[in-house]
């Protein structure tokens, strides 16, 4: 009786499996019969749903257009092509071309040009959990992508999806200031915090939530930095607020030279270093007056939608002046530490090219006094001038300038302490204990 | 013992057939009305009438809705589509999607096909993948479709103001193509 039941069950099951099996074979025999949606509706339903809401789905741009036709089963997911800007350029040629002429496209190159990048855990750089999470917006060569995969970085190598997020790729989303928020926030470039609490941002956000009418003025990030949807994003001063030609003002000129020395683009004698070429190639600094003026004109054009030319120029000039004043504080701090190297109080670390503080080593700098300098530069100097350009008085003053003043006085104290120890040790730099020096309060 | 085995397997197969018929009956019956032109299982015999077998249901439903609402220019389908409710359209979409595609069999000139392929690769391949055979969601299969149908579709698509559904980029791709080039494209796709 039991055996009979088992046999009956066996054939019943067979009866169901057989038609299913032949169906599967039929589908697999035709490569043109790839059915991505059928599976992915079960495996990653929101990916499919997002895409169905996208303009792509309406235009007949489906999975295979970006991911290719090679991945057809759960076992060959490696075969799915992961898109790069070149993929998007197949249809969005103009936008990709613009993108490539701006700073975003170079974000990956810039990240790799930073000495600190190569000292951080992979997860924090190429693995997207740190720098790479935002710098992924930069374009990568096919070789770089292949190497990334080999190194186990996994996913996240696309660029355009930084603003047009997967898989809805919404133009509307990318036009909102929030599209910039994930990356332009926090320690080194809190543009979101500055902008969103400035009157520009407050009005834009009030328009979004319907308090102000849609036609009221209230600029988004894109209104100034991506005018008419131009994907070429560049600014006059760039990220580091150093540029060529050097300023005519004698004192400022000297200060900028000192800062460029600490950035490692000029050597301690003031001659250009190989790093200058890297920085120029990565378009981090504007290297001609015309280049600077062009970007400045672009911004003034945006200002002129609401402000008189005189007003706008005056406000931007105040920002320039703050850079000059902030540079003086920073240059003094750099010179204090440089003199420690010069006098043998500090020994040149092996990783340094010159016996001179290196701002681009970030937190990997060898001593707390240089950590403090790094914070003064990357956190506080940035806030001072970015706050001015983004119309955020608190950022310019309390989170920027005021902190720089405090940094400078701390660095002076720390330098003095180091000198005292050095002398007490009979002039032996290596006996200076790192733990005993005051550590910075910042990050 | 043997009797039981035979009986149970026959019963299972029988039940399977019944259950399939029960769900497809209405859609199948509805599709009879289309068979005169589009063939019994969506494989059309006429060279200017498109095959429907295997069309993704999303594409099918949208095409029918557009015919119905006057959003897609037609010689005949606009009138036919009006006779069907949305539910019936959805049911037919499911039916045709299940049918197996059979490629058009027409005489083609190898040289013309080669010409068509060059234009296809230059202007159409980025969307109509796998020589036009790829189909998913709202992208119809054109590889193996009837040549005359394709030709008329493209020709109409070039006419300003003619309601022929097409993405902006397709419109741009078709711009300026001569009748000879359209013929070459149609032959290339039909030959797939």
Total count of domains of chain A = 3
Low-confidence stretches of chain A: 10-29, 435-443
- Work out the largest interface and the residue count of each chain: A-B, 31 and 27 residues
Distance between the termini of chain B: 52 Å
Compressed to H and E, one letter per element, the order of chain A equals HHHHHHHHHHHHHHHHHHHHH
* Total number of helices of chain A: 21
Number of DSSP-assigned strands of chain A: 0
Rg estimate of chain A, integer Å: 28 Å
Structural class of chain B: mainly alpha
Keywords summarizing the entry:
heterodimer; A: 443 residues; mainly alpha; Hydroxylamine Oxidoreductase, Chain A, domain 2; 3 domains; 21 helices; disordered C terminus; B: 192 residues; 8 helices; globular
SSE layout and pairing:
The complex is a heterodimer of chains A (443) and B (192).
Chain A: H1 2-28, H2 36-43, H3 45-53, H4 55-58, H5 63-67, H6 85-89, H7 93-100, H8 107-113, H9 131-135, H10 142-150, H11 171-174, H12 178-181, H13 191-196, H14 199-208, H15 221-225, H16 250-262, H17 274-281, H18 289-303, H19 309-342, H20 368-389, H21 393-424
Chain B: H1 2-38, H2 57-68, H3 77-81, H4 86-98, H5 110-124, H6 147-158, H7 168-174, H8 179-190
Helix pairs in contact in B: 1-4, 2-4, 5-8, 6-8
Please provide a written account of the structure.
The complex is a heterodimer of chains A (443) and B (192). With 443 residues, chain A is mainly α. Chain A has three domains: 26-58, no CATH class; 84-171, no CATH class; 188-424, Up-down Bundle (Hydroxylamine Oxidoreductase, Chain A, domain 2), CATH 1.20.850.10. Chain A has 21 helices and no strands. In chain A, helix 16 crosses helix 19 (309-342), helix 19 (309-342) runs antiparallel to helix 20 and helix 20 packs antiparallel against helix 21. The longest helix of chain A has 34 residues, at 309-342. Chain A is globular. The model of chain A is unreliable at 10-29 and 435-443 (pLDDT under 50). The longest helix of chain B is centred in the N-terminal third of the chain and has 37 residues, at 2-38. Chain B is built from eight helices and no strands. Chain B is mainly alpha-helical. Chain B is 59% helix and 0% strand.
